[in-house]
Structure formats: structure tokens, C-alpha cells
Design a protein that fits this description.
Number of strands: 18
Number of helices: 2
CATH architecture: Beta Barrel
CATH superfamily: monomeric porin ompg
Number of domains: 1
Largest sheet: 12 strands, antiparallel, barrel
Strand order of the largest sheet: 3-4-5-6-7-10-11-14-15-16-17-18
CATH class: Mainly Beta
Helix content: under 10%
CATH topology: Porin
Amino acid sequence: MCGKIRGVWILLSLLVTVTIYSQNLVLNDKMTLVSLKDFVAPGVSLIRFRFSQDLEYSLTCSNALFFNWQQDNGPGQISFLQRLNYRTKFSNERNIQITNVLAHDLGMQFFFDSISRFYPDASTLDTKVEVKPCRRFTIFFSSRLATRIFNAYDYAPDDSGIYQKILNSSFLTPLVCNFSAGIGWNNPRFAVINIGLSGAKLTYVWNKDIYTQLKVDKFFGVPANKDVYFEYGLTAQIVIDQNFLKRVHWNCDMLVFKNFEKPIDLTVKNLIEIKINKFIRGSIQTKLLYEEEVSRRLQIENLISVGFCVKL
């Protein structure tokens, strides 16, 4: 009799839907949802959803040289920089993927003319939603928000030769938001190319004192009597992210926005990173920026750094 009861319980347990949650910690944090509703053929993936997150922190010493740079302009500087990068990724293992990347930079600058100050921080939030109708092509929506957390200042001598502190940007001054929707092509061995069939750029200025400090009527295209400047146009983005010889990492991100009535806005970030050992890395970074509302000249920033890096 007992044997028959055990057999009935085993049969009932096979008919009940089983849901398993698991969490792995291997340099990052992952959660995988597995649902077993029906028997599946061998070799078929049982994973329904994946969620992963990773955190990277680095502390570097840098030497920067500027040419025609309109933001935080200076003859040159030595900087101690810290960078925090937090990334999350959600996917359903089929055709939907949502990625968020939060990056924040903060440090200390020492100028060659003996002036020192806190490094003007840069905070960005990138969000991308992708739907893959086939292996290589995607339909995407992406956004990029960029602002500062703390006030940033320039130092300039007055008529008596005394250096004055002049506000050049602050929290939400400006807040630059880029939005884009279109189609993309993804080749892991080469690059990711996104073409925005519809794009928009919104610039917001919260601190109105910036116009008085800089003695200007417009700041990043926003008139002094308004808070927001909105542009509509087309976007294009090319992202190359490759590793070479297990120690060299190359990342190049080029973003172009074309207003229908104005010249293009161009932002290029090129990073070559060399892994010296598990915790020490060196990098060479070049940033190109062209925006007519800020300057009619191409702005160039070169950054060479060596420092400590850890991933969690």
C-alpha cells in the first residue's frame, strides 16, 4: 500500500510546473530564470530571461593636452581621476535586449600654472532597447543623458591680474539628451552600426546665472530667456569594441547628429587600453567634439593615464 502511495506522489510531482531561480557571482552579478512547463528535446535552452550587472571602478593619474577646447580650457594639466561604471543587461535569449550604462567621472586637476581644482565631473546614462528580427539586424531605441553633478569653474585674470573664478557649467546646466530610433547592424567581430531614422536632441539649462557669469546670450544653443532648446533630425552611430592579444582593448564610439537646418554635431571617443596586470592598466584616450553652438572649431582632448582598476 505504501509503495502505491509513493508512486502516486511521484507521478503528481512530474505533472506540476517547476520554476527554478538561480544566482551566480563570477566577477559580476547574474540572475537566470528557468521555467519547465513541458518536456523539451535535448539541446534546447530552458532559459527564459537573463539579468546581469557589473561594476567597474578605476583610479588613474593623467596628463591632458588641449587644442581649441572650449570647455574647461587650459594650457595643460595633470589629473587624478576616478571612474565608476555600472552596467545592467536584460534579455530574453531570443530577440529582446535592454541595456543601461551609468558612468561617472570625478577627480582633481593640477594645472601647469599652479592652479588646482576639483575635476569637473561628467555623468552619463545610456539606455538602449533592441529587438532582433534576425541574427545581424536590429530595430532599436536609444537615449543618452549627460550632465554634471558639481559646479565647474574657469579661472581668468581680471584687469588687476588677480585670478577670478568663473562658473562654466553646473548640475543640469547643461543637461544634454539625445534620442534616436532606427535600424542597426551588429557584427561582433567588427562593429555595431546604428542609423537613426528619427532623432532628437534636447538641451536644458537649469542655472540661469551661467549667462551672467559667461556674459553670453546663448549657452549650448539655449537662449537666456528660455530653459530648453529642442532639435530634430537624423542620427548615426558607429561603435567598435575589440580585444587584441588578450591585453589590448580598443573602443571607438562615434555619434553624429544632423539638424535639418544646421551643420552636424560630432562626438568621437577613441580609447586604447592596455592591461599590464590584473589591477594595473594604462590607456590612451582621444575625444573629438564639434558643435557649432559651442564653437566653430574642432575641439580635441588627448588623455594618457596609468592607474588602478577593479571589477566587481
